[in-house]
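Entry 12.
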Amino acid sequence: MRAMYTRLLYRTGIAEQLVGYTDADWARNTGDRRSTSKFSFSLGSSAIAWSSKKQPIVALSSTKAEYQGVAVATWKAIWLKRLLKDLQVEVSDPTMIYCDNLTSIQLVKNPIFHARIKHIEVHYHFVCEHVLSGEVKLQYVPTNWQTTDTFTKPLGMDKLRQFSGALGLHHLDLPNLRGRTVSRDRPRE
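Predicted 3D structure (C-alpha cells):
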C-alpha cells in the first residue's frame, strides 16, 4: 500500500509578503450553473489561507463570476493584513493578488467600463477603493500558472506537484505498517 502524506512547510528567513491568487470557474456546476470562486494566500513560503466556495448567485457572465472572486479575495486580503497586524507581523504593502481574467483587472484600471457593469457596482467600488488606497494590487497571471486550480480542477501529476509546491505543500514518503519506506515512484501493491 502506498503511503504519501502532505504537509505545509513554513521556512524562516523568507520575506514576509502576503501574496494571493484568485480564480472562478464560471457556471461549472451543471445542476444550478453557479460558479465557484477560489483563492489562496501565502505569507513567505507557504499558504496561510485558502478557499473554494460556490458563489451565492448565478453569474450572467464569466467577467461577473471572476470579479466576484476578485472582490472576495480583496476582502480576505484586507482581513488577513489586519489579523497579521494584530499578531504583530509586519507585511509589506500592497498585497499582490494574481488573477487570470484580464477584463476583471481592466475594470479596476479603467472606469469607462463602469457603465456596462452596473450589476456588479458594489464589488467594483469595494475593489477599486482598496486598489486606489494601495492596500491591494491586481496582477495578471496566465491560467497555466493559476495555483488555485488545485482546489477545483482535475490536474495531471506534474501540475499538481507544481501548484502544491507553490502553495508550500510538500509530499512526504512515510514508512508503511510493515516498516518499509514507501517510494512515490513505486507502483501500488
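Annotation: Residues 62-86 form the longest helix (25 residues). Residues 11 and 177 are 30 Å apart (CA to CA).
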